Amino acid sequence: MSVDFWINVGVIAGIYGILTLGLQLNTGFTGLLNFGQAGFMAIGAYGAGILVAEAGFSLWLAFSTSLVLSAAVAIVIGWSTSRLGPDQFAIVTIAFAEIVRHILQNTDFSGGNQGLIGFDVEWRSASEWITSLFSGIGLGEYKQIPLLLFVWITFAALTGLMKMLERTPWSRVLRGIRDDETAIAALGKNTLWFRMQSLAIGAALAAVAGFFIALDVTYLYPGIFDPTFTFFGFVILLIGGLGNYRGIMLGSVVFWTLMEGSRLIETSLSATEQASLRFLVVGLLLIVLSRVYPHGFLGNSRGRAHDY
After folding, report:
1. What are the phi and psi torsion angles at 38 (to 5°)?
2. What is the pTM of this model?
């Protein structure tokens, strides 16, 4: 496999890592089983794409607007499901993500199944300029390096920001809601408002990931945002460990190295059988990892009572 192949693996690993930061906040710190991250990601990607291609926004203004839009939708979802139990909430979020995908598939403003193009002109210009800077050190032929750097710098900055938030009283309230919401409510905290804040921030992080996936594929179509996005995010979460933001970096790199590295397995099988074999091998390796590291590589094994 070429260097370009592994650079692209790095881009995908970083994008999934950003997506999983939101899952860590929702599930690892607030106790919300959010299976709708792919839907928030689609809102971020399509929101930015439509605002640029149809409304003439600059790319960066469209990006900011899509973050706000995704967070606003999350608040509506959080408020409208406030009376549901955890299991029901999880099912609703799956349905939400599928509703978003089917709306994008069957409406004209999103381009339907024909997709959306022409939103990344500003990024391509910036990317070509950055690539020209790398020509001096012999890396000018690798066109994905600017996106790789942009994704991982953003991923590292967001991880640092979430680590800072983890040390605040706000985060301690979230962990209290995760462990005993009734007790936290008895202390006078508005638990619904805190849960909606967690959802909104998680959705904004998913929108950031959606923006980057739009820059990576350069062509948006609804099929990109199927539920596997969210489920792969949960796999990364379990590999890295619940309750640890830094574990997501490790989890994402391990998962995507296994997923894409398994393409190097050479057999006489057909392409379809080879793809099935890849998932079988990766699944078995993940089972072994979960047995050896039951709390993930960097998960909290001390027990929730000592977590705050």
Report:
1. -60, -35
2. 0.90
- Beta bridge partners of residue 177, listed in sequence order: none
- Give the Cα-Cα-Cα angle 211, 220, 251 (nearest 5 degrees): 50
Q: Which of 267, 207, 173, 246 is nearest to 19 (CA)?
A: 207
Counting every residue written for the chain, the total comes to 308
Phi/psi for 116 (5° steps) reads: -130, 130
* One-letter amino acid for residue 110 of the chain: S
Of 47, 10, 7, 40, whose CA–CA distance to 25 is shortest?
A: 40
The tens place of each residue's pLDDT in the chain, 308 residues long, gives 688 889 999 999 999 999 999 999 999 999 999 999 999 999 999 999 999 998 999 999 999 999 999 999 999 999 999 888 888 999 999 999 999 999 999 998 888 888 888 898 999 999 999 988 888 887 778 889 999 999 999 999 999 999 999 999 999 999 999 999 999 999 999 999 999 999 999 999 999 999 999 999 988 988 889 888 888 999 999 888 888 898 999 999 999 998 888 787 777 778 788 778 878 887 888 888 878 888 888 876 554 544 54
